[in-house]
Amino acid sequence: MAAKQLILCDSNIFINLFKGHVNVKSALEKIGTQNIALSIVTYAEIIYGTKKSDLKKIKAFFEHHALIDIDTGISKVFKGIVLNYSYNHHIKIPDALIAATAIHLGLPLYSENKKRLRLYP
Question: What CA–CA distance (Å, rounded) separates 47 from 42?
Fold first, then answer.
């Protein structure tokens, strides 16, 4: 059987998962742990917003998912997004970096933010 494609998950997906949203939990179960990826930006946003008492649990959770660092290719796409979308669409820097990661790597982006460039499912 062929491996499924990685799905890049936005920060709001994990935030909603940790809040107990059943629809997000169900979607992530369908994707499968081995197919879930997150940007280092998402990791930073989640860690930054985590209570110290939950930090160990959150870090352990993310150890089971593909973590994607920012590289030169992602930076180039990010630059284009900022130049083309920041004035008219007011895209935020973290959102632009996450979108650039998905675009550069050709990954579907799972987000509950309907303003995103590409969505899964």
Answer: 8
Q: Say if residue 32 is exposed, middle or buried (CB neighbours under 10 Å; 0-12, 13-18, 19+).
A: exposed
Inter-residue contact 10 to 42 (CB < 8 Å): yes
Burial per residue of 92-105, b for 16 or more beta-carbon CB atoms within 10 angstroms, e otherwise: eeebbbbbbbbbbb
CATH topology of domain 7-110: Rossmann fold (3.40.50)
Q: Nearest to residue 41, comparing CAs of 92, 108, 106?
A: 92
22-52 per-position pLDDT tens digit: 999 999 999 999 999 999 999 999 999 999 9
Any bridge partners for residue 36, and if so which?
7
List all residues 6 or more positions away from 38 whose beta carbon is below 8 Å from its beta carbon.
8, 9, 14, 62, 65, 66, 67, 68
* Residue-wise pLDDT tens digits, 69-103: 999 999 999 999 999 988 888 888 999 999 999 99
What pTM was estimated for this model as a whole?
0.86
